[in-house]
Amino acid sequence: MTAAIYPYVLTLHVLGATVWAGGHLVLSLSVVPKALRENDPTVISEFEHLYERLGIPALIVQLVTGFWMAHFLLENVYDLFSFSNRTNTLVSTKLILMLITVVLAIDARLRVIPKLDAGRLRSLAYHVYAVTAVAVVFVVIGVSIRMPFPFP
Ligand code: HEM
User: Which of 94, 100, 134 has most ligand 1 atoms within 8 Å of CB, for mutation?
Assistant: First the structure.
């Protein structure tokens, strides 16, 4: 049994996914190529400055709504990371991906961005590509929690 507000929470979760995955796809496919072409890191920092205000809250919403939904779908929420059934494996993988995202973001914030110049631009670009790839995997795993696709 799920709660009556479940569809609203799921809607918030999917809205967060559009902001997080969509924003990073725009960053990877439009903003980063422009910055590399012009060898100008400010193209990325200007976008990030504007996007951050929406992107970080969206990721927090994902985490909170995701956990909330998971406690209905999992037989035992304290059993996370046991990989004992399909849903448990998919939700646990999402949490591992969240950890990877946070580590990449902290590394970019503390190590790459403070000394950002044309030379370190490529390093930042690789961070952005990695976070984007993880965001797309988040969406695919999210969809497959209820659909037998792509993991039957
Ligand atoms: C650690 C954080 C997260 C947890 C615990 C989590 C958990 C879940 C759960 C339990 C569902 C299944 C909902 C259902 O089918 O009723 C779901 C669906 C989904 N999630 Fe996440 N999620 C997290 C983060 C993310 C992120 C960051 C994204 C995308 C950037 C994302 C994208 C999706 C999508 C697209 C769905 C499919 C919704 C549907 O079935 O219509 N999730 N997530």
Answer: 94
Q: Is 138 in the pocket of ligand 1 (CB under 6 A)?
A: yes
The reported pTM is 0.91
Q: Measure 17 CA to ligand 1 centroid, in angstroms.
A: 8
The pLDDT confidence band at residue 148, using thresholds 50, 70 and 90, is confident
What pLDDT is recorded for position 143?
A: 95
With a CB cutoff of 8 Å and minimum separation 6, the contacts of 18 are none
Residue 106: inside a domain, yes or no? yes
Helices 6-26 and 121-144: crossing angle in degrees, nearest 10, is: 150
Query: Which residue range(s) make up the domain with 86?
Result: 6-144
